[in-house]
Structure prediction request, 199 residues.
Amino acid sequence: MLDSNELLETESASTKSAVNEFGFTTEESLIMGQNARLDMISFVDGVSEFYEPGDSYQELKSKLDPVTNLESMHPAANTLLFKAYSHLDSGESTSQLHGVELIEMFYVMLLNAEQRGIENTSEIDLDLESLELWGLSEENLVTLGCRWFQIGCHISNAWACLGGSSKGNGGQTNGQILRDTIAAAAALLGVIIYLMGDD
Prediction:
């Protein structure tokens, strides 16, 4: 499995390349940035059900996973959860949430799926990919509804952006070809990081 910090260091050049390759317009960039923010707000809302003011990060992890305290979560999952915790702990406005950490986690999920030989996004089980990065067992999926750890249900807005038509691929969609979706996710990260500079 990839370490998100190594991943982002090695992929920074390809992120810039992907942004240029996809050539998002200003309007598309703003829409994608807003969608990523809405998805991040959804994730933070899911985590907030377990957070009480004054909780330490370790206490929150223990509430989210009373069995293992999320001890084996992937670095990308830890970064995402810590961002949610920091946001809840500080009480800052949701306007400070950009969604970078959520899209990074999704990006790692896509890359992991590709490493397992998956070529089409229709073959990806987003719930199982999420559980793997959180270090949780499949038993966590017995409850209905969108749970805090189910990244697939929190990225509905960004997924809509990533599932649109890809330029130059013969009319197939990003949602059909995993490699295109990975490139689009990298481009989306670049867009969000660029938009963060405007705040």
